């Protein structure tokens, strides 16, 4: 009886813990979906003028329209997308009508178009402010000789282009040969449903194995008595 009681308590406790972890992931899923919905609403909102002092947290994803001059001297960020394949994001300096220098993420070009001429000069650009978190300890150093960067490092790019550390990711076209890659929520991880299913699955397996061991232990006990 002691062994059966131990198995029962152990099984119930383990199942309860796994179910609790699954419930926690369900709550996290609801929270993340609310966050993503808020971000999507913010991204699609009506554009505003460029803030005087953009804040990387408060103004992340803020829709902005700027008028001014696209200047030469772009930085090419090597990327690869599922639909478009390998290519570059073009990060270019932009001088607003008020004289501020910021960066514009103009969008995507295939690798074969790296040396192609692109339109510069006066234009109006609509997009979203963003400070991408793409740099880690594995990010290679930029190949400045070939003008190839491996991440959008806003402070470092701003220093290279002599602009404010402000990046506007265009959602309007700035050149016929450049495909805008607007900000969206696709790259924001939301794996809580998978985690919840995993924890609930483990809870079910734990419960089934507990019942099996209880049955097996009881069956052995009866057999030994006989």
TrEMBL record:
Belongs to the SURF1 family. Its main location: membrane. It is a multi-pass membrane protein. It is found in: Cell membrane; Membrane. The keyword Transmembrane helix applies. The chain crosses the membrane at residues 197-215. The lineage of its organism: Bacteria, Pseudomonadati, Pseudomonadota, Alphaproteobacteria, Rhodobacterales. This is SURF1-like protein. It comes from the Bacteria. It holds the Pfam family SURF1. Keywords: Cell membrane, Membrane, Transmembrane, Transmembrane helix.
